[in-house]
Amino acid sequence: MDLQSRDRAPGKASRHKCDQDSQAQPKTTLFRFRAGLSAFIDMEISMTLKNQTPRTALNLTLLLFVLAALFFNPTPTLAEGSEVALPNFTDFSRTVQNDEADVLRGVYVADTFALPVVQQPSGSPGYVSNYDGQLTQFAMAAQFGNLGLLAHNHLAGKSFSQLAVGQEVRLVYGNGRVEYFVITEILQYQALQPTSMLSAFRDLVTDKTITANQLFERVYKGKHHVTFQTCIEANGNLSWGRLFIVATPKTQSPNFDRMARHLLQ
After folding, report:
1. What's the domain range around 191?
2. What is the reported pLDDT for 177?
């Protein structure tokens, strides 16, 4: 992907610095969006191809991505279908804390799941954890001020379908800080070419078709929010579609977070 600006043109030596400065922000924004879309595509490749059987014939242009995904996704250590009683929030929060103030360490949704969060390895925007009981934070979403949480639908992502509009989502950081969100949207799309990184997507509610570019903007850009993402299984295809759960910040009283942190100490 060519990340150089298409609008660059020869300029006169006497061009004012203010003219250059006025163009800097749009170029930076364009670079970040293209990088974000590229990471989104890499992650899509990882999530879709991990769900295919060994007998599936793979397009040679995707082979390197498959090898990378296999390398960074170790064998699961928790058997699929294992049931663990949901801890109370205080106990869960304490188990995931590690004193790293700015690192997201866990997500808690009452009566649904309590899951630790792992980070993508540096330089691996397509990485999605292959361990059951873990969510992966999509690092590129942070460049747009948002949080992306990924999981395969045969592992931790299977619990995403249990989420509902109106539910509270609690994010726990390494130092015990808690952010509160409320689920506001559930989006479902069919991938018209499930194994293609350039697939178009059909909205299952409106029947409208959008590009991967438009989908990225829809779910990862905009005002501060959290997006949960996994695949939808249908017709025997684990990567038939995509499920996105969007949660926006929950309004709290000024002292609410301080009180919550005090109770966790």
Report:
1. 17-75+87-264
2. 95
